[in-house]
Amino acid sequence: MEKFIKHTGTGVPLRRSNVDTDQIIPAVYLKRVTRSGFEDGLFSAWRLDPEFVFNKQEFKSGTVLVAGPEFGTGSSREHAVWALQNYGFKVVISSRFADIFRNNSLKGGLLTVIVGQAVVDALWDAIESDPTTSITVDLEARTVSYNAITVSFELDDYTRWRLMEGLDDIGLTLKHTDSIDAFEAKRPAYKPKTLPIRV
Amino acid sequence: MGKTLAEKIWDDHIVRSAEGEPDLLYIDLHLIHEVTSPQAFDGLRLAGRPVRRADLTIATEDHNTPTLDILKPIADPVSKLQIDTLRSNAKEFGIRLHSLGDADQGVVHVVGPQLGITQPGMTIVCGDSHTSTHGAFGAIAFGIGTSEVEHVLATQTLPSRRPKTMAINVEGTLKTGVSAKDIILAIIAQIGTGGGQGYIIEYRGSAIRALSMEGRMTVCNMSIEAGARAGLIAPDQKTFDYIKGKPHAPQDFESAQSYWQSLYTDADAKFDVEITINADELEPFVTWGTNPGQGLPLNASVPNPAEIKDAEERGAAERALQYMGLVAGTPLKKIAIDTVFLGSCTNGRIEDLRAAASVLEGKKIASTLRMLVVPGSERVRQQAMTEGLDKVFTDAGAEWRNAGCSMCLGMNPDQLAVGERSASTSNRNFEGRQGKGGRTHLVSPLVAAATAIRGTLSSPADL
Ligand code: SF4
After folding, report:
1. Which of A1, A178, A193 to mutate to test the interface with B (most CBs of B within 10 A)?
2. Considering only CB atoms, which chain B residues are within 8 Å of A95?
């Protein structure tokens, strides 16, 4: 995973709430067996509408998505995170994210930043009045800044450290194999197993 | 102070905890399907890591499999590649797989319980958000992403933050014609699609205890539609009886059962939030919009966005009505339906098919619509045929299909056409969920069956 320390880019205002992962990447695009190439499916149904914000020239190079509340509800598909990353997004800012989506994003290095809805509203206004507005998301300082405004956001130290170091969770867990072995030694025998198959 | 059920199970699975870090949780069962696993297996191969516990892992093909001609090669080459990839991964890593045509193939969340492999007090994960279904047995069961699938394959653990706890007490008695699906749709309409965010919900109260295991699975299944991490129900005699005799029921049933009996929320435990719902007042429920929180009792009319105060919600309602092709003020019962879908991990179990068949018996579906009946698993299909339910459906004019997710998410050929309107027993009414441009109304199996007969959204009482 790439390290995330600080990112500066322009924003894309997505003024919608309850953006579910079926919209972010519809099921028909989930048949691939790779992690790349999902950008073509990103919001594919909404992109058919020429008025959709992704089709506006001034927002084409945005890397910070600013979305309404309950972003990423629905299906657990991590393809939603990959699609946003494949398209070029580094950060999503919203007042509320669905749990699984947020989990997936932070595992995969797409920074999801939670700020109050008033901050989101102000960001939308700023980006819409000037699409070249530069937004800086500083993970080290845990701040979002634009136009001389700086807002802080919360993220636990552990997740922040992992993202800044670009660390893979599996590697971290495998350091504790002893604890896993010890736990398994104490598991009760009546716990079910899938093998051998019983009919 | 006592503990809630969720806290007891969580604490029993902590492999390691350290200040400031997420708990490392042991996972008792890992379910796998074709869509969210290929990249995880790839990751293992790249890192040269084995699967730690193939004997706690099970795979099935369900999401993009066809429900017709299942033994012919899959026509869509991309779907075929994904299924073939699962088959070769299962073989390479020694994982049990139930393929098309196998007696235990079916929707992953129907397969676990029917094998008796879903048991109280377990931690269960799957790369699928409706893993919450298994919570009906008193387990902590939740959906994960593909990176986490890889993590569980490699380590049989998952670093996770302890969720907060919420109690939803459903007290009273359901009226005839009102079912588990109506309870959960009403809950979501009340607390919203984000209402459960960050919580494990425990469903409690007399109306929950009165539900069958199938009904409890329907309720827990849609916890995710309320935004919750998971949903669960304390196990009781019904739970134990359901597991007994199933292929993977514990051989030492006594020991298992004595542990299971300790799985309840202590009287002095505290939930972070408690909500009470009156079951006596519930009516058959149906969604009118494009998220599962946009639902109303069937007797109501399409809401008028102008009357919604919250600007965000008003905008969402306006967009939803436009997408759904609905006019404010139209009685929901006047909405004509093109396709009725009976199936999915929400309502594709035997009891759901029985409920729908009891309404359809001796009747015909309206000539203006089609009805697809897709059992949740091959075992459910066999059981239904033994009971003659398939005849009831086909005599009524419905299509009797093979098991799978089918039109719940429209990854296989079973899809809605642009503008086509469905009454569906599944769990998501998102834009395009059942096919590009398709419009979905979520309903219970009873409402699905009555709707099929009348051609417009209806409950059995309308017949
Ligand atoms: S039936 Fe629907 S909700 Fe359930 S696992 Fe399949 S696609 Fe997901």
Report:
1. A193
2. none
Q: Is B373 helix (H, G, I), strand (E, B) or coil?
A: strand
Q: Do B430 and A96 touch (CB under 8 A)?
A: no
Which amino acid residue places its CA nearest to atom 2 of ligand 1? B408
Taking only the tens place, the pLDDT of each residue in A136-170 is 999 999 999 999 999 999 999 999 999 999 998 99
Chain A contact set for B58 (CB, 8 A): 194
Give B117 to chain A, closest Cα distance, Å. 6
Q: Residue A72 and residue A22: Cα distance in Å, rounded?
A: 9
* Phi, psi angles (nearest 5°) of residue A76: -80, 0
Residue B258 class from Cβ within 10 Å (0-12 exposed, 13-18 middle, 19+ buried)? exposed
Cβ neighbours, 10 Å, residue B375: 31
Cα B64 from Cα B405, distance rounded (Å): 7
Predicted local distance difference test score (pLDDT) of residue A199: 86
pLDDT at B145: 95
Q: Closest residue of A to B112, CA-based?
A: A194
Question: Cβ distance B195 to B227 under 8 Å?
Answer: yes
Strand spans (E) along A139-180: 143-146, 149-152
Q: Is A29 helix (H, G, I), strand (E, B) or coil?
A: helix
* Contacts A116 to B, Cβ<8 Å: none
Question: DSSP character for B174?
Answer: P
Summarised one tens digit per residue, pLDDT across range B234-265 is 999 999 999 999 999 999 999 999 999 999 99
Q: Is B63 in the pocket of ligand 1 (CB under 6 A)?
A: yes
Write down the pLDDT at residue A18: 94
Atom of ligand 1 nearest to the CA of B411: 7
Burial degree of B254 (CB within 10 A; 0-12, 13-18, 19+): exposed
If we measure between CA atoms, which residue out of B280, B292, B302, B291 comes closest to residue B457?
B302
Q: Is the CB of B344 under 6 A from ligand 1?
A: yes
Residues of chain B with pLDDT under 50: none
Residue nearest to atom 4 of ligand 1 (CA): B345
Chain B residues within 8 A of A69 when measuring between CB atoms: 194, 312
Query: Which of B13, B147, B415 is the best substitution to test chain A (most A C-beta atoms within 10 A)?
Result: B147
Q: Say what the ipTM of the complex is.
A: 0.94
Mark yes or no for CB contact A180/B227 under 8 Å.
Answer: no
Q: Contact B196/B163 with Cβ under 8 angstroms? A: no
What predicted TM-score, i.e. pTM, was given to this entire model?
0.96
Distance CA B58, CA B96 (A): 5
CB of B224 closer than 6 angstroms to any ligand 1 atom = no
Q: Give percent above pLDDT 90 in chain A.
A: 94
Q: Answer yes or no: do A26 and B436 touch at CB < 8 A.
A: yes
**What residues contact B67, with CB distance under 8 A and at least 6 apart?**
B372, B374, B401, B402, B403, B404, B406, B412, B414
CA–CA dist A49, B437 (Å, integer): 13
Chain pair A-B, CB pairs under 8 angstroms: 211
**Res B71: pLDDT:** 84
3-state secondary structure of A122: helix
The pLDDT of residue B34 = 94
Distance of CA B174 to the CA centre of its chain: 21
pLDDT at B261: 98
